[in-house]
Amino acid sequence: MINRVEKLSLLSEMIAFAKYDKDINNVEYNFLLGVAKQLEISRSDFDYLIEHPVTYTHLKSHSERIVQFHRLVLLLNIDSESSSSGVIKLYNFGLRMGLSHESITKVLYLMESFPNKIVPPDVLIDIFKTQYN
After folding, report:
1. Which InterPro entries does the entry mention (predicted)?
2. Taking 80 as the threshold, does the pLDDT of residue 81 lie above it?
């Protein structure tokens, strides 16, 4: 299980991702707040992170990195105005997390074939599992 510092780092990273091209809209805010609740981060800590990001902490667990990448895919696609710059940003976040570029590329390619561009978790896990083995 990840510790509090890692949780704050994950959430801070997601906030930065949501802010990459504009302010966080209501849908993104509510999604991020839901993630904060899942990570057992208080709303006051969450609101603080929006204005005061924390330093990135690299996750040791490959499975936690995959879960985080999936969260970023979801975050990208809850905004109906997602752009190619968002996809590039997602790709770069995945690389920074140490995920294989082949897996990231495959997820981004397959994303177009799913309703609302949301890759189901089992499909995403299979993609990374295949590349990891």
Report:
1. TerB-like
2. no
